[in-house]
Automatic annotation (TrEMBL):
This is peptidylprolyl isomerase. The lineage of its organism: Bacteria, Pseudomonadati, Planctomycetota, Planctomycetia, Pirellulales. Its EC number is 5.2.1.8. It comes from Blastopirellula marina. It is an enzyme of class 5 (isomerase). Residues 206-297, 487-580 form the PpiC domain.
């Protein structure tokens, strides 16, 4: 298979290489970059995220590891650590590295394989050309990047972890190393000429033109205004203010920042640099707008203002800017050449190839990339997040076993049918449409049916089995539910304030003029809550048993036109104006009893499930060796404290 064919069957998008070459971070809350590795997760430390599936066939177990493709040179940037074979212990029951490898591979194998092959491809090219990226090279590059933003290396690496969850190891291996490698590989295309440096100098220190601009979207109007301006150049500011459709420049009477060379549209630059002070340009058509310029002043270059001792440093800085701007195109060009000549066979996603090549994930130029290496890479990037899910699953499975309960295929199907029914996925006959629901949920979440069932349906069913017998819907529950859903509502205006003192002042004003209109004006002026502020105090009607008993009690106590006292709700102070009560549409509880029971049971069940899982998790003894965390469990801690108290009493 040719490199071209292989690439088509297993695309290695050049966005990967572009991102590696152009990794840019803007301090101040924005880190703008494309993930060159298929995701920022790493086994060193990682918050759980949604798990994503890319294949549904059973996980392969690697046979004896085949001879690998050329070892990536970047390994020098991330020294190997000893692989622990037990990654966690949950209530004395281990989770093995092998089991975790299966789960990470199941969820992230394809995306990780793509980035792994990308790295191998660059590494092979480096070896062929005798290029070696040392750990010192990586350290120096990180120091340079941190210095550009005025940060220490530790703070820079910490910011990457905080903002993008990129660990230092991953940053070194998957961001910095590829950038350095591609820069070396593209060195011949990154030469900067004196002419290019001079262009940069002119951009920053060269001559410029102070102009006013008039922008309209009609050619006839533009020509008319241009004629008026040419006849009376002094009228240009007023014409721009009155007619220009560019709001910013119109507000400044047409004045825009001075135009420099080599920065914007060449036609505009050539036109304005040819004008003399006071002259009006012809009409130019640029970006769907008709533009007219008036030259206010031709401003000379600032080269003479550069201190003599600084010129060489400035020119060097300009050369660096040119080189950086070339990096993306040059790196993409190099990578496209590497990719065009590469022969890539994806074994991982081809069951027939996998059976003939056990233990191989892919081949690159005839050399195997082992399945074991792919598994380890998956653990490195996604191990912590996946392990946390497996710990939760283990806790649930242990409790099911302790209570002699099981989750059957029928249970899983019943839950999927229930979800389809509750979310309105129905057939023409009005029956739950399980297939339509599965299609929707898996496409939305980017997961396979297998993983949706494993990661969402199974835990739901397991928890329901653990708590279902404890959930009872009482007659009192039904009555409260009926009142909450179908009972009368209190219609009110509301003012929400964040200060008791301000609330007292507003309440006094409202009491002196207790009209609906004046209360609405006060809400618009003083309320800090957007809905009431923007709607003259109007808020959704208040129902009973809605979860805000203090507000509900006050709202239902008021007569129409009456103002409440100041109600404290957390850190906020609330004032209500009563508009009266609504009339219920349904007044017979028996008409909706079945629906209420079903809804209330589901709500109580969900709450019980959440409480049960929290209890099980809190009481579990968990040693997580990937995340370097340990938990003795609340039950164990309580027993220890009790024993200590008994010893103290003796």
């Amino acid at each position: 298979m040719t490199g071209k064919d292989a690439t088509r069957r297993f695309p290695l998008g050049k966005s990967w290489v572009l991102a590696a070459a152009g990794f840019v971070v803007l301090i101040g809350g924005v880190v703008a970059w494309r993930q060159i590795t298929g995701g920022p997760q790493n086994a060193e430390a990682q918050a759980p995220v949604q798990q994503r599936a890319v294949q549904q066939r059973p996980v392969q177990r690697p046979a004896a590891a085949p001879a690998p493709a050329a070892a990536p040179v970047e390994e020098v940037a991330a020294p190997a650590t000893q692989k622990i074979q037990t990654v966690a212990v949950v209530n004395r029951e281990p989770i093995t590295r092998s089991a975790l490898a299966d789960e990470t591979l199941r969820r992230h194998g394809e995306e990780v394989l793509e980035s792994l092959l990308n790295r191998h491809l660059i590494a092979i090219a480096c070896q062929q050309q005798g290029i070696q990226i040392t750990e010192g090279d990586v350290d120096a590059e990180i120091q340079n990047i941190a210095k550009k933003f005025g940060l220490s290396v530790d703070r820079w690496l910490g910011l990457l972890k905080e903002e993008r969850n990129v660990t230092p190891g991953q940053y070194r291996r998957d961001i910095v190393w590829p950038t350095l490698a591609l820069r070396r590989l593209a060195a011949s295309e990154l030469q900067v000429t004196d002419e290019e440096v001079q262009v940069e100098m002119e951009k920053n220190y060269g001559p410029k033109v102070k102009v006013r601009m008039l922008s309209v979207n009609d050619r006839g109007l533009a020509e008319e205004l241009r004629a008026k301006a040419a006849a009376n150049p002094d009228s240009f500011p007023d014409l721009a203010k009155d007619y220009s459709q560019d709001i910013n420049s119109a507000a400044a009477r047409g004045l825009i920042p001075p135009i420099r060379k080599h920065i914007g549209n060449k036609e505009i630059e050539d036109t304005v640099f040819a004008l003399k002070a006071g002259e009006i340009s012809p009409v130019l058509f640029v970006a769907s707008q008709y533009l007219v310029f008036k030259c206010e002043e031709q401003m000379p270059a600032d080269f003479d203002k550069i201190p003599a001792g600084s010129l060489e440093g400035i020119r060097k800085h300009m050369a660096d800017q040119v080189r950086e701007s070339k990096m993306r195109d040059a790196a993409a060009s190099v990578y496209e050449k590497l990719q065009a000549n590469a022969q890539i066979v994806n074994v991982y996603n081809d069951a027939s190839k996998a059976s003939r090549m056990p233990g191989v994930a892919a081949t690159l130029n005839g050399q195997p990339v082992s399945l074991r290496e792919l598994q380890e890479e998956c653990i490195n990037r996604h191990g912590v997040e996946v392990l946390d899910g497996e710990i939760n699953r283990k806790i649930l499975q242990q409790e099911l076993t302790r209570r002699k309960l099981t989750v059957t295929e029928a249970d899983l199907e019943t839950e999927i049918v229930r979800a389809a029914d509750s979310l309105g996925f129905l057939t023409k006959e009005g029956k739950p449409d399980m297939e339509a629901w599965l299609k929707q949920v898996t496409e939305e979440q980017g997961v396979s049916v297998e993983l949706y069932v494993r990661d969402a349906v199974w835990p739901t069913v397991a928890l329901k089995k653990l708590v279902d017998s404890q959930v009872q819907v009482t007659e009192e529950d039904i009555k409260k539910g009926f009142v909450a859903n179908y009972g009368e509502r209190a219609q009110v205006l509301a003012i929400v304030l964040d200060s008791q003192r301000r609330a007292q002042e507003v309440w006094e004003m409202a009491r002196r003029n207790p009209t609906e209109k004046f209360f609405g004006e006060l809400a618009r002026q003083y309320s800090i809550e957007p809905v009431s502020k923007n709607n003259d105090g109007q808020v959704p009607p208040i129902r009973r048993h809605g979860g805000q008993p203090t507000i509900e009690e006050e709202a239902f106590k008021l007569s129409p036109g009456q103002i409440s006292g100041i109600i404290q709700a957390g850190n906020q102070s609330i004032i209500l104006y009563s508009l009266g009560l609504t009339k219920p549409v349904i007044d017979n509880i028996e008409d909706v009893r079945d629906e209420l029971v079903k809804e209330l049971h589901e709500k109580k069940l969900r709450l019980a499930m959440a409480d049960e899982f929290e209890r099980l998790r809190d009481n579990a003894q968990i040693d997580n060796f990937l995340a370097n965390t340990t938990q003795a469990g609340k039950a164990y801690e309580a027993a220890v404290r009790q024993q200590q108290l008994q010893q103290q009493r003796k």
